[in-house]
Write the structure tokens for this entry.
Amino acid sequence: MTATPGATPTIVLVGHGMVGQRFLEALAERGLTATHRVVVLCEEPRPAYDRVQLTSYFSGRSPEDLSVTDMRFIEDHGIELHIGDPAETIDREARRVTARSGLAVDYDVLVLATGSYPFVPPVPNKDAEGCFVYRTIEDLLAIEEYAASRATTGAVVGGGLLGLEAAGALKGLGLDAHIVEFAPRLMPVQVDEGGGAALLRTIEEMGLSVHTGVGTQEIVVGEDGAVTGMKLSDGSELATDMVVFSAGVRPRDQLARDCGLTVGERGGIAVDEQCRSVADPHVFAIGECALAADGRVYGLVAPGYEQAETAAATIARDEAEFTGADLSTKLKLLGVDVASFGDAHGTAEDCLDVVYSDSRAGLYKKLVIARDGTLLGGILVGDAEAYGTLKAFTGSVPPVSPESLVLPAGAGAPAQLGPAALPDEAIICSCNNVTKGTIRGAVTEHQCTTVPEVKKCTKAGTTCGSCVKVLGQLVTAELEASGVEVDKGLCGCFAQTREELYEIVLALRITSYQDLLDRHGREEARGGDGCEVCKPAVGSIIASLAPTIGASGYVLDGEQAALQDTNDHFLANLQKNGSYSVVPRIPGGEIAPEKLIVIGEIARDFGLYTKITGGQRIDMFGARVEQLPLIWARLVDAGFESGHAYGKSLRTVKSCVGSTWCRYGVQDSVKMAIDLELRYRGLRSPHKLKSAVSGCQRECAEAQSKDFGVIATANGWNLYVGGNGGATPRHADLLAQDLSDAELVRLIDRFLMFYIRTADRLERTSTWLERIPGGLDHVRDVVVHDSLGICDELEQLMRAHVAHYRDEWSETINDPEKLARFVSFVNAPDTPDPVVAFVPERDQMKPDLPLLSIGTRPADVLEGSAQR
Amino acid sequence: MTLAPETTDLKVQLSLDGDWFTVCDLSTLLPGRGVAALLPDGRQAAIFRDRTGELFALDNRDPFTGAAVLSRGLTGTHRGRPFVASPLLKQRFDLASGQCLDDETVRVTAYAVRTA
């Protein structure tokens, strides 16, 4: 089969990895996809994915999560993407590429982005069963399967970046993990001896065995041909069930060699500064398969992106060149920050070092400084907070002394160097080559006011994410500098944020909304009735802190009652025709048949519409206000309590059946879900809270879409936070791994209380995590490492909540005064609201909507636009 | 003999077609929360009391949804004037005039109220 080009010129891209995808985006941005036919040949069975984050597959990200390819982009630009069909031959004379399927495409321009392949040292038995490489999602799937079925020990050959990630992954799979590195230290390319030593201690403390200064001589196999161990160069033998080679990569240039393109002595397709093959002007090479004009092969994604942009620009006849790139990197390896930038090893003549080393804390920081004070580069191990700022200052003389940049805060550091001091041309995001000036422009010219908006506008922070912290500081600084007074106040009544109000209520033990409004509200709001925004927000704060500040925890008590939205006021969910729905708590989704029958009988007797909710509960719709106490009297009598479906509070903790029934389950997820639901029931929070517990990594309870989600491992529980479904879905982030029951509960206590304390009104944990400065890392520092010293207090607050929990509905039905408000009409309590009526549908009933039409008019929901 | 005037059980009354229609005891009204009342012609009113003790009454039906729910909304003060926000889609209505603050073309009936 031959696809012949018509009048439109054809660009063929061989390889669809991260760099290939970026090249396609660059073509589209330059309008070339409209004027050219674009054909992509991709060997892997899936389109481009984020290889940098490959290891995050093991912490729960699916291959789909890792994708960097928007299929709508591919379709919208008419790109012909052939998945699982690698290019096999190139006929440069005929300008024709032939793929494995037999598909032949004639090209005008050929772009090779074939990447690299893992280098496997030529030792005996290197291809034995149980030997793997660490490069693609398929490699990871194979490692996972083998580790689960046949291995208890695993060894990684290579102690570089990927090797450490691979070793961490093996450990995460429950194996005894070993690292074998030929060089005398770990990560020899990025760090020096001191940094390697700091890293070694930390890695060993995690329970990984490190063997440096030894080579692999032979893979030992058993009778069945599978790996049993490896012989090392010091004569010792290491018993292991599997071996993962991670000893570096080599450019994948075989296709180029076969068609006679020039390749370097040590591999790589030789290209000029426009990324064009030195041998053939119709061929370009970009990414890890290219030997750049400066004689180097770049294995990082940022230079690859730059090459992709250069090639696309050249094809569009724009001027662009790639002359070399910065090899700065910042990584989080097994939870340890490692960064190196600029001239990290101090190779420049006459340069000086400033070193701070604290082996107890696993810290090592080195700056390389020129005689004139110019910052040339550096290495950071254990704490890479300053990476973004330091890298941007590289090549200039920083405005403060170098030692103050590496000393920890409180150890005599005189100045914190903020990004405000950076020049406009400083690169903030090196993955996407975004300068400080561009980011400032996003704020001043494109009216971006938040980090997510700036990310979208500039692409900064969208690849590795290491610059997001600096990005946040820049956006805030720019907003403040732009002179526009940013009113962060909660509403027209309070100039404070919700977080500030929380602190005021807690510190001054304020238990009354009017007291707070009259003493701390805006001048013009004092003495007034507040508004619908701050009343429930303050009501929620007072309820969250009730046991600690000495307020009543009952939301319908006294003045509290006037603060609640109608849902909280009637302890039920208002529906469109003015009727309510009722959701009793069913902890963990576990319910005995007797209770199911009670719910069925109540729904039948009151004529309610029933539906199973997404949170493993049963919702009963169509209750009139005056029916609510009657319904709840029966529910409470049968042992049910409020499900708080109406509150900004914990809704439900879903669960799978777990190890009790499921053949895959490794922990009792139902029991944990019930325990968590009963612990946090009734906890008032800035927004609703959802949770789930899965009994194994198959994740049937969908815990990663929850505000806090728990997934069982062989060693305990992994805790994920900040997940969300809804309109802007977000996968939860892993906060901590392999926790015991007690550790899990303690960490959730702290996390929830820290969220309640610092979140904005109606801010779910997902947006809160994205907004707060420092993001997940900061939250982890606070709740795991207690960096603010508030964990005792957070735990105390939660203990008080748990101790003072009371069921709102059983209190209500036993209080005649409270019951008096559950009437349809104050002057005709027994007359039902005539607007609330129902008509039959599918064996049940639904609201009688024509009854509602009194010249009704379409309107937008105003919730959320309440800043006035 | 002089009888002491009744000071307890003040009644809340709405003005309907020139007459005063008694709705409930003043003590039933909680500052900041409304109640619903059924009127003789089948319409419904939402009656509110603010923190200074002043009374207000509007038609109870939310013109945006048709549901009779305004009595269940949260009240507040906007530029010195009292309002209620519909509990369904949150549009605000001036308690004294019935004017919608979020859509100038919409207004609900406002009733005069007194205690007697």
Remarks:
- Chain B has one domain: 11-115.
- Residues 1-7 of chain B have pLDDT under 50 and may be disordered.
- The interface with chain A takes residues 22-24, 28, 30-33, 35-38, 42, 44, 47, 50-51, 61, 63-69, 72-78, 80, 82, 85, 87-92, 102-103, 106 of chain B (CB under 8 Å).
- Residues 61 and 107 of chain B are 11 Å apart (CA to CA).
